[in-house]
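FYI - complex with nicotinamide-adenine-dinucleotide, inputs then prediction.
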Amino acid sequence: MASIPHMNKTILITGAAGFIGSQMADWIVGNHPEYEVVGIDTLRGGFPENVHPKITFYKMDAGDAELAKIFAKHRPVYVYHFAAYAAEGLSPFIRTFNYRNNVVATANVVNQCIAYDVKRLIFTSSMAVYGKGKPPFDEEAAPAPIDPYGIAKYACELDIEVAGEQHGLDWCVIRPHNVYGPKQNIWDKYRNVLGIWMYQQMKGEAMTIFGDGEQKRAFSYIGDCLPPLWRAATDPRASKQIINLGSGVFYSINEANAVMRKVIGAGKDVHVEARHEVKNAYPTWQKSERILDYHDKTNLADGLAVMWQWAQKQPERPQFVWPEYELEKGLYSFWKKND
Ligand SMILES: NC(=O)c1ccc[n+]([C@@H]2O[C@H](COP(=O)([O-])OP(=O)(O)OC[C@H]3O[C@@H](n4cnc5c(N)ncnc54)[C@H](O)[C@@H]3O)[C@@H](O)[C@H]2O)c1
């Protein structure tokens, strides 16, 4: 028997006060006002100012049992699960938190999506799942993560896939890479290299580069990613697909820093201890063009110029420092307390 069409027009976004979640909510409110947006967020990594006034917002952990009540009340048709703590380099030092917050919380979201017949779950995984693989990373490549964050994202992907096989949950897994732009958290010293540099520049500090800076990464402007994220939910071709999302143009960290200094018109860099990270990480993008109509429209200099304008208008906030690491052994000097 054909399934009954989902009549509801509500979309649930987890991580709605964060960077991608709040940008997605703004985009849906602006482009698809026929949908009601409901958001949840712990506000640990995002900010109330990011939350669009037209959305219904709950301060809540995605791993919380209370999430069932949100699903029961709003009956979302699509769920964007963005909530995560994406500090990849820090994840070996906050291991149990990483798995609880990323894997266990995702399991709770998956449970509710199955129980409430969500039409599609869109999960933002990460390029971190490719780990030691050989770039450019293709979606068909076998995952080989090198840190707990990448392992957590891969575990979530597998769990979602299995929920699809056993319970018929429809899903789309997106693997974004180094997305940047306005509303990104620039006050967290553990993640988002471009945002860290902007914060350091505004504080009159040198911009830190880990190791020799020759590691290569691709950077993706948020505005280019939003329409494809919409199609990840709504296009039949995105059903049960894993898709890389973002720019195929890669830079060494030194080159990206040179672009940043040009955009800012000032700044200096300093090399610090190398981290445990992959040397080169950049993906293929053809599948995103084909299925999600992704276009790499915004080059790094132009995207950074927009973000820098925004960053300078932001309120003063203290830089976030993890209150108590789970493990101090092997911690890099630049993250030790009382540096
Ligand atoms: N920005 C990128 O470059 C990038 C790249 C690859 C993958 N991703 C993934 O995209 C998603 C969004 O990333 P972002 O850059 O917007 O990060 P972000 O930190 O700006 O947003 C995440 C939001 O989730 C919230 N959150 C964290 N754990 C939560 C929980 N258990 N329950 C409820 N809320 C919680 C945080 O408070 C934050 O507001 C994440 O899953 C991240 O792993 C991002």
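The chain has a mean pLDDT of 96. The pocket of nicotinamide-adenine-dinucleotide is lined by residues 14-15, 17-21, 40-46, 61-63, 82-86, 101, 105, 124, 126, 176-179, 185 (CB under 6 Å).
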